Amino acid sequence: MASRRLALNLRQGLKVPRAGLSLPPLRRGLATPVASPALKTQSTTLKNGLTVATHYSPYAQTSTVGVWIDAGSRAETEETNGTAHFLEHLAFKGTTKRTQHQLELEIENLGAHLNAYTSRENTVYFAKSLNDDVPQCVDILADILQNSKLEESAIERERDVILRESEEVEKQLEEVVFDHLHATAFQQQALGRTILGPRKNIQEITRTELTNYIKNNYTADRMVLVGAGGIPHEQLVELAEKNFTSLPASSPQTGAYLQSKKRSDFIGSDVRIRDDTIPTANIAIAVEGVSWHDDDYFTALVAQAIVGNYDKALGNAPHQGSKLSGLVHKNDLANSFMSFSTSYSDTGLWGIYLVTDQLTRVDDLIHFALREWSRLSINVTQAEVERAKAQLKASILLSLDGTTAVAEDIGRQIITTGTRLSPGEIERVIDNITEKDVMDFANRKLWDQDIAISAVGSVEDVFDYARIRADMSRNI
Question: Where, by residue number, does the polypeptide cross the bilayer (predicted)?
Fold first, then answer.
């Protein structure tokens, strides 16, 4: 019906032709599928081990290109913790081919965007530009990765910048709570360290440590050059062969490298930072989660979606879907909560982050959150699984809106698993998850499992670890 209305409107909008002229009849064309290479992620490995991966969209006017490196704060030692993030700051401060001013001017003249970030397991440098400017952007990325000058004056300037950044992070309670959660869950292990590193390290990191980190980790076998948008695969492969063939083929087997590849052990434990000047209790509770390539990866995400999220400040707070959010709202137990499933190459954290100003009822809030976890092992309905699956699919698909998001998805998947599942494949995997799968996951990963707890703020009334741990096997 809509198509007929549109055809009618088009006909009514046409001017009547002058005498002696005729127009061909307006006919409705058939919608036909178009075969496009955009439907598939292509990858090629160069002789030196560098992987090139693209998702080509022939009608896109822009492209995102970037380098994903299998090295983050996890590839550091306790003494060099913070080096990866420090390098990210210095990457744009000049190379042997370009001064900082020339680099900034070149990017500005292109109208492009150049950025970078560091995580516990990856370092990423990427640029977004018009398609015609992709070769120049790849040249810039190759230059900053292979030819950064790392001048002493720049190191000293960035040292102060990073120290101020560290101060800002310490004011963000969620960041602080999750850093402490990692520190207690993965004690004395690389995954438990922060990305920025301790202030002492930031003040003492030297140029030698920075250059050693590049030499030991920025190697072809641990890099993926990604393109998403209007950049054809063959063109990006040619650009990679032109700009990245001088990269070392493999990483030296240093102690730090071997430690970074050693499986992290989850340790049931807790850490509490009491500060009564903070008006809320901010608490994260987690069990050991799943890795990126675990068979339970998507089941863990569905279970997380069933527990759900809640924010009292939102207008739809009473109707946010999950049973826990309804109970929390009805009894005014929390300002907000957020369930999470954080994955790494060999392990993960699955849990919930709670924020409340009802300080005398913190124990009730924790009890009902863990009771919901126990329920997942016993009684999950088809309706709530379908709701969680719909939310998860929408979240994943909406997060892939734009070339930068697609490049991020390709880079992250290939650097961690060696391949990329397309959105369609992910959708089919999620569709096949049943309530039985969720309960099986909860029985193995949640029921009577050790937990890690991180609590910051007004946390005097948080029960002791043994009492909270006992709630992990409650028959409801």
Answer: none
DSSP secondary structure letter of residue 26 = P
Q: At what angle do helices 382-398 and 297-307 cross, to 10 degrees?
A: 110
Can you name the residues that pair with 126 across neighbouring β-strands?
Answer: 66, 115
Give the end-to-end CA distance of the chain in Å, rounded to a whole number.
52
The verdict on whether 88 is a catalytic residue reads: yes
CA distance 359 to 382: 35
Amino acid letter, residue 237: V
- At 153-174, the pLDDT tens digits run 999 999 999 999 999 999 999 9
Catalytic residue among 76, 78, 88, 386: 88
Burial 193-209 (b: 16+ CB within 10 A, else e): bbbbbeeebbeebeeeb
388 pLDDT higher than 60: yes
Distance in angstroms (rounded) separating the CA atoms of residues 307 and 379? 13
CB crowding 366-398: b at 16 or more within 10 Å, else e = bbbbbebbbbbbeebeeebbebbbebbbeebee
Q: Is the pTM of this model over 0.85?
A: yes
Strands in 82-211 per DSSP E: 113-118, 123-130
